[in-house]
Amino acid sequence: MDHLDRHRVLDAIVRRLSRHVEGERWLVRGGMHMRGALPGLGRVVRDLDLVAREPFDQAAVRETFAEVLAWPMDDGVAFDARVASEPRFRVGRQDHWLAVRGFIEDRSVIVGIDLAYGVPFGRPQPMGPTSRLHRADPASVVARKIELLRAFGPAWWRPKDLYDVHRWLTVAPPQCLGEALEARLGTVTRVRGALALGPHANRPWRRFVEASAPSALPDVTWVLEEVRHELAPFLGSAS
To answer: CB of 134 within 8 A of CB of 125?
Structure first.
């Protein structure tokens, strides 16, 4: 599947949510958050991540989003009225997965919508002056990404998390980042530990950049140095 078609379908979903009353219940995070906030600097996105402001009815969510997608718009994208759904279970969280089929001319594109409740999102920010949909606070996004780098560790870390952290910190440093880091990780040691990826990190990093990142970033060592530099105010003199 061409990622440009996928992005066009995902943009169409966000556009409809932004105008529908249902959009008031959700916040955008993940790759689509980056694409909206940092145009031209976001990575390839494969699904739409949404955080609910309050618990949602998992039994009704499929029909609700089918109604949203049926909203008529002149953007060249149409949607199948059938939306597949799958509840997911994680401790302390409410999760649901939707599979949506969009049509661009004679091309069919299937994308996912990942719905979650129980994920901290900080201070919501509007997607636009007339949008009903909001995006998660960038500081909370960066702190969460650093938390994930630490949780997965050198063996299982995801290059997209480091890429997102680097893009936010070097292009549009979030306000109140110190508060968000303290809330998510608690100690300076945990922040430092998240950035200790080991000597073999360049191989997965290069694979990711070739497949998913539009911005050519030399190697993971250089990226980590830049991230540490931007985080230095929060790491103390030993950073």
So the answer is: yes
